[in-house]
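re: ur question from earlier - yeah i can do the single chain one, its not a big deal. heres the input i used so u can compare w yours
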Amino acid sequence: MVTRFEWRTSLCAADFPAAAYETLRLRVTDHTPFNNLGWLCAAEQALGEGEHLHILLGWEAEELRLCLPLVASRERFFGVPLRVLHHLGYPLADRLALLSLLGSEDMREALLLIRQRLPHALLQLNELSEPAGEESALTEWMAHSSTGERRLSCRVPVHLISEADHQEVSGDPRYKLRRARKRIAACGAEVRRIIPDAISMGPLLQLIREVEAVSWKGDEGVGIFASEHSRQLIERAFTALADQGLVRVVTLELNGRCISYRLGLLERGRLYDYNLAFLPQYADLGSGRVLLEEWIRWGLDDHWRWIDASRVSLKNSSHQLHERMTGQLEHWRWSFYSWRPSGLALGLALRVWQRFKPALQQWRAKRADKPATVVKPVAITKEGEPNAAPSHSQR
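and the output i got, formated as tokens:
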């Protein structure tokens, strides 16, 4: 069957084929709440100056087989502004599925159409999850790019909820959890479960925004409310998803005040642990671990299947779900460099860096292992003559 391609400029328009989009989304195995039209429309409405949305649709008869919303913007590389394309929602969408059911030939044609309509140096799709054992539809794009890269973004710990979770966790996490519960009970704080709707979501987001603002995330400017762009996106997206019953929140409250929270999205029995923060004066309570346990207890009560860390750092992740994980999921970043001069130059720079990076890492490792020169302190005798004082080796 012949594939018909179409360009749109808005997901929020009244004539956008929302029903066909939802049918496509549900057919793609690894779709997530970040593929939800409510989340993407919020991302569209929060686009800033210089960011432009272009949506490529692929149809077979009346069936939607591809929806790829791309944001065109300019980013600086080596001080030079170049045109880059990202999936709508980047960088606040923690895990995405590529909404495509097209074959390799049609995907190749889709890439050609993107290059014709949206000349660019780099097309990058972040945080894509892929079904295990299946070849990605994006593999075809690698062979038709001047340089292509598929790079692991992170390995997300996941916990499969089972009957064993009715029992207390074993090992070191058990004692950490017990100590945290005792501290919380001693100060009189209480855990609360919340399923917000569209009306209550706004005031609830204001409460957790206030907690984040005074937490270390607020101090370092890395929270989900850190910028005006991200604040608008989060408020609109979570309000839209709360209206669909997809938002879950667990809080720790003291005298009616929220002192810690975990914010999550629930779809198809999988809870995505999206964000948490706590007031710094209550850091010693260990509330994060207790609230994670509350996710699991809630899952047992409501028959959820999975608790996922929405996203973690690739290295040195401190997410507490690592203590309880039963498996991991991988997120990938796909980068496609065009055949334009800017794309060729960026691709060449990447290949040079990939060759140079191992040697640099080895040099840094050797430098780190090299023993530091020990300077012996000098003692002054009563007569004023310097004598060498005994030294102690240091590492």
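Residues 341-369 form the longest helix (29 residues). not sure if urs matches, ping me
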